[in-house]
């Protein structure tokens, strides 16, 4: 019962219980709200369709905007709105990410007024931290020319790269920390020591041979270079005369074809040649007994005539002078001289004793 608006103890008890219940519920509601907010932020940062990078914030537009395509092996976690940096300067963002089935194609929109990027630059996708968003870093070439990156240019695959993969790095560190990498290294070293046990001298010999080979190469390096240059010139000459070689090969092919077509005739010719050789050998064997003494006498005669070469010359000269003087003399009825020399008859008399002349007489010649 309330007196002058003052609640009694009976009336205050339910209200105190309700106030105490509200006091316990408020901290739980605040904690639950903070947890939901954190979960929402994390999901928004790591969900591609909820990423804040997809908002077109800072994308260049206007007269200084250029579109540049970049080809990467892959483009993990790269979305529309990803930053493009040139050094420490943000010069643009990713406008489109697609693929052709073999590589990732990242189309970026850059503000050329912020920085003059040299032509043929390098691009790399980098991951700053474990929870940070990746970005595309553009690096100038080692020898920048006068050309600059312009609208419609592209950076091919061989001038792009992926930065260090954080997950792989953490996995490697974890493997080393838990001892598996060290154990594998111990196993490798143990097996290597077992394989090389007792082979130190052999390895030393191999090393010495390698050193000698290098020394020989250094000594004959000029000769090797000359040989390689000569081979290069020969190859160039063959290349320049390739048409002539092709014609020669074609002619050779025709010759081989003709030989193949006349193979039977060639076989018959070879057989006839073999038969003729056999008959000639039989003839030589059967007549060698008759001709061998004759050849021996001929050789002796030639040797004797060669020994008389120095004496026969002056005698013939004197005989010639005698014949000339005798012809100048007045011939008479009782003076006649036949100064003709019968050289064949003389040789016949010396060699066969007149057998050849006798044969001629016997064959019907005059005596």
Layout of SSEs?
Layout: H1 9-46, E1 65-72, E2 83-86, E3 89-99, E4 104-111, E5 122-126, E6 135-139, E7 154-155, E8 160-162, H2 166-177, H3 180-196, H4 200-219, H5 221-240, H6 242-261, H7 263-307, H8 309-328, H9 343-352, H10 355-362
Parallel strand pairs: 1-7, 2-6, 5-8
Antiparallel strand pairs: 1-4, 2-3, 3-4, 5-6
Descriptive notes:
There is one protein chain. This protein has 367 residues and is of the alpha/beta class. Among the domains are: 46 residues; 111 residues; 43 residues, no CATH class. It contains 10 helices and 8 strands. It has an 8-stranded mixed β-sheet with strand order 7-1-4-3-2-6-5-8, with no helix packed on it. A hairpin with an 8-residue loop joins strand 5 and strand 6. The longest helix has 45 residues. The chain starts with 8 loop residues before the first helix and ends in a 5-residue tail after the last helix. InterPro entries: Mce (IPR005693), Mce/MlaD (IPR003399), Mce_C (IPR024516), MlaD_Phospholipid_Transporter (IPR052336). Keywords: Membrane, Transmembrane, Transmembrane helix. It holds the Pfam family Mce4_CUP1.
Features:
367 residues; alpha/beta; eight-stranded mixed β-sheet; 10 helices; 8 strands; elongated; disordered N terminus
Largest sheet: 8 strands, mixed
Please state roughly what percent of the residues sit in beta strands, choosing from under 5%, 5-15%, 15-25%, 25-35%, 35-45% or over 45%. 5-15%
Q: What shape does the CA trace take?
A: elongated
Strand elements, count: 8
Q: Helix amount, in percent?
A: 55-70%
Strand order of the largest sheet: 7-1-4-3-2-6-5-8
What is the mean pLDDT?
75
- Separation of the first and last Cα atoms: 200 Å
The radius of gyration over CA amounts to 58 Å
**Topology as a string of helices (H) and strands (E):** HEEEEEEEEHHHHHHHHH
The total count of helices amounts to 10
- The class by helix and strand makeup works out as alpha/beta
Low-confidence residue ranges = 1-7, 48-58
């Amino acid at each position: 019962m309330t007196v002058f608006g003052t609640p009694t103890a009976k009336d205050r008890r339910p209200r105190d219980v309700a106030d105490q219940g509200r006091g316990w519920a408020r901290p739980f509601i605040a904690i639950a709200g903070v947890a939901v907010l954190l979960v929402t932020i994390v999901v928004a940062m790591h969900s591609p369709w909820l990423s804040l990078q997809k908002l077109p914030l800072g994308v260049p537009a206007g007269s200084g905007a250029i579109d540049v395509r970049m080809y990467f092996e892959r483009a993990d976690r790269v979305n529309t709105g990803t930053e493009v940096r040139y050094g420490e300067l943000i010069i643009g963002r990713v406008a489109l990410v697609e693929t052709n089935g073999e590589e990732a194609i990242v189309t970026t929109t850059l503000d050329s007024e912020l920085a003059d990027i040299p032509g043929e630059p390098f691009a790399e996708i980098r991951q700053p931290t474990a929870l940070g968003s990746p970005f595309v870093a553009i690096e100038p070439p080692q020898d920048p020319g006068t050309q600059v990156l312009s609208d419609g240019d592209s950076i091919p695959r061989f001038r792009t790269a992926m930065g260090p993969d954080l997950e792989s790095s953490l996995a490697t560190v974890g493997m080393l920390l838990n001892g598996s990498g060290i154990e594998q290294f111990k196993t490798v070293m143990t097996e290597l020591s077992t394989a090389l046990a007792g082979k130190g001298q052999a390895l030393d010999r191999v090393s010495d041979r390698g050193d000698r080979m290098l020394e020989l190469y250094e000594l004959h390096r000029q000769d090797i270079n000359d040989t390689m240059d000569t081979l290069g010139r020969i190859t160039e000459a063959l290349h320049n005369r390739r048409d002539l070689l092709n014609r020669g090969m074609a002619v050779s092919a025709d010759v081989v074809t003709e030989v193949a077509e006349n193979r039977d005739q060639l076989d018959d010719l070879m057989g006839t040649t073999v038969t003729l050789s056999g008959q000639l050998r039989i003839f030589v064997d059967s007549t060698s007994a008759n001709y061998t003494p004759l050849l021996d006498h001929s050789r002796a005669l030639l040797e004797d005539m060669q020994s008389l070469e120095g004496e026969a010359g002056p005698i013939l000269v004197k005989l010639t002078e005698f014949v000339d003087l005798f012809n100048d003399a007045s011939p008479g009825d009782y003076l006649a001289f036949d100064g003709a020399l019968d050289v064949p008859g003389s040789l016949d008399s010396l060699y066969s004793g007149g057998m050849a002349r006798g044969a001629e007489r016997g064959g019907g010649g005059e005596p």
